[in-house]
């Protein structure tokens, strides 16, 4: 963790390339976009840096331009509960920003990341004046709600394979994280931090998902081959019958029986 200056103290103006990685700017009218771009700042977060802390007042609406963040909190027993990972293109904390309430979670960098921040006053100005911005924020809230409901359901079922599948499906959400595309740069250790499993157990679950044809494990990351299959495997794995164990050969197709046609009695002969 950086010991010299805080992430806020290291803030700077975004580069043109970094502005291109902010998805909601395209939804704004020209005057709205100019106002937002004048207010936006970015910070270079090191591994372990906290972007925001639980109990602190909200000052910015944050997004990830590059890197990977973790949203989590600690309970009374000191155990860490991870809510979500935030990959490139993801913006978070809109509910907290709308209500101007203190953060109820910590956001921490899992790797070196570039984090953008929109000042809270500019955030509310856009809510008051921009239809496109309102639509983006509403979409964020809707997708986030569905994500957390699914996470709660999977946690109750307690399947490790389902937790990995759910974690990946969430990270490959094209609406919440448009910067990911089809390839997610993530290590098995980082994925383990997000889903609360050991790297070895994550490796086993990834092998099972790869055998299913939903993903392909590549050097330095994962490629999604079938997003719908990945989403469906979440509850199939939780039920214990959807994701085959690693190394399980694909099931052989069952031959279809050709129906036998019997002559109709009493039919006239040619």
Automatic annotation (TrEMBL):
Entry annotated with the keyword Transcription regulation: yes
Bias (Basic residues) ranges: 254-264
Stored CDD domains: CAP_ED (cd00038)
Superkingdom of the source species: Bacteria
Name of one Pfam family that matches: HTH_Crp_2
GO cellular component entries: cytosol
Gene Ontology MF term list: DNA binding; DNA-binding transcription factor activity
Region of interest called Disordered, as start-end residue ranges on this chain: 241-270
Keyword presence, Transcription regulation: yes
Domain HTH crp-type intervals: 158-228
Keyword vocabulary terms for this entry: DNA-binding, Transcription, Transcription regulation
Cyclic nucleotide-binding domain sequence ranges: 24-144
Protein name: Transcriptional regulator, Crp/Fnr family
């Amino acid at each position: 963790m950086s010991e010299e200056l805080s992430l806020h103290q290291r803030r700077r103006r975004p580069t043109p390339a970094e502005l291109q990685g902010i998805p909601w700017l395209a939804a704004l009218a020209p005057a709205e976009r100019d106002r937002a771009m004048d207010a936006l700042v970015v910070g270079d977060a090191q591994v372990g840096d906290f972007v925001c802390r639980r109990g602190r007042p909200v000052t910015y609406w944050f997004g990830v331009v590059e890197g990977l963040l973790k949203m989590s909190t600690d309970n009374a027993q000191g155990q860490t509960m991870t809510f979500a990972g935030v990959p490139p293109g993801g913006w978070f904390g809109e509910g907290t920003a709308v209500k101007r309430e203190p953060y109820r979670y910590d956001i921490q960098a899992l790797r070196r990341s570039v984090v953008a921040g929109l000042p809270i006053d500019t955030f509310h100005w856009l809510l008051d004046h921009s239809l496109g911005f309102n639509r983006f924020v509403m979409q964020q809230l809707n997708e986030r709600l569905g994500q957390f409901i699914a996470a709660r359901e999977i946690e109750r079922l307690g399947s490790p394979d389902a937790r990995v599948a759910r974690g990946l499906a969430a990270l490959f959400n094209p609406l919440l994280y448009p910067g990911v595309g089809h390839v997610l740069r993530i290590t098995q250790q980082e994925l383990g931090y997000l889903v609360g499993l050991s790297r070895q157990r994550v490796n086993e679950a990834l092998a099972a998902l790869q055998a299913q044809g939903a993903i392909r494990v590549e050097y330095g990351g994962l490629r999604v081959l079938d997003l719908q299959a990945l989403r469906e495997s979440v509850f199939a794995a939780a039920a214990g019958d959807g994701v085959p164990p690693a190394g399980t050969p694909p099931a052989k197709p069952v031959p279809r029986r050709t129906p036998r046609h019997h002559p109709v009695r009493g039919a006239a002969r040619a």
